[in-house]
Write a structure and sequence with these properties.
The structure is a single chain. This protein has about 230 residues and is an alpha+beta fold. It folds into two domains: about 5-95 and about 175-230, Winged helix-like DNA-binding domain superfamily/Winged helix DNA-binding domain (Arc Repressor Mutant, subunit A, Orthogonal Bundle), CATH 1.10.10; about 100-170, Orthogonal Bundle (Arc Repressor Mutant, subunit A), CATH 1.10.10. It has eleven helices and nine strands. The strands form three sheets. It has a three-stranded antiparallel sheet with strand order 1-3-2. It has a three-stranded antiparallel sheet with strand order 4-6-5. The radius of gyration is 21 Å and the shape is elongated.
């Protein structure tokens, strides 16, 4: 083997070695830093797609996709096809009834438009189009989608149509409270079952911070369990 090729081959093997060592840990999926960050991010932004995930975590799409596949195999993450995109969310964190809300708000422009409306109730389509730098036609389609899910209501004010956020997100948050508690309980049970000796650092209704350890290695898992609030951040 030529010297240059041999060196390149050795470097390639060297880059794979951490993954191979990590895989020998068995089922302890969340001891891997990338997977832990992916899981934490999806708890904040359920129904995110690959492009947003890779940009947010500053990892390549291929790396993100590979680790998301591992999380799916380990039944920590679920995927959903939406048009041309594949969306990912933590298993058990949100109900099937809420998926369409998170699917819609996973779109950046839609989320920005809705956040503007929350901060500026009574806005017209012209206001929304200008704030989001989109056309009036796109603003119309966006508000129609939000209306269909009950996130927005409208009233006629003379020649203007004004839009207001509803309390649907708040109601869904309240309905999801028991699910969030169960989600935290199941995560702790799983970590314990994988021999990671979970030590609760802080636990509240909206978050869970756990120290996990495998041998001499220790890591912190910081999970948000209030996706109805964090999805708009």
């Amino acid at each position: 083997m030529p010297e240059g090729v041999g060196k390149a081959f050795q470097e390639r093997i060297g880059r794979k070695e951490p993954v191979e060592k990590e895989e020998r840990r068995g089922i302890s999926l969340l001891m891997n830093n990338v997977r832990r960050r992916l899981f934490e991010y999806l708890c904040v932004r359920p129904c995110s797609h690959l492009s947003d995930i890779s940009k947010a975590l500053k990892v390549s799409p291929n790396t993100a996709k590979w680790h998301l596949g591992k999380l799916r195999e380990g039944q920590l993450v679920v995927s959903k096809i939406s048009g041309r995109r594949t969306l990912y969310y933590p298993m058990g964190l949100i109900s099937q009834d809420s998926l369409k809300v998170f699917e819609l708000l996973s779109e950046r422009r839609m989320r920005e438009l809705y956040v503007f409306l929350v901060d500026n109730p009574g806005s017209t389509q012209s206001n929304l189009a200008k704030s989001s730098k989109i056309s009036s036609q796109t603003a119309t389609r966006s508000t129609q989608k939000l209306e269909r899910l009950g996130l927005v209501s409208k009233i006629q004010d003379g020649i203007y149509t004004r839009y207001f956020p509803t309390d649907v997100l708040m109601k869904k948050r309240e309905e999801n409270f028991s699910r969030e508690k169960t989600f935290q309980k199941n995560i702790l049970k799983r970590l314990d079952g994988e021999g990671l000796r979970p030590k609760v650092v802080r636990q509240a209704s909206i978050s869970l911070i756990v120290e996990v350890s495998l041998g001499a290695e220790k890591s912190i898992l910081n999970i948000s369990t209030n996706p109805f609030s964090t999805v708009l951040a």
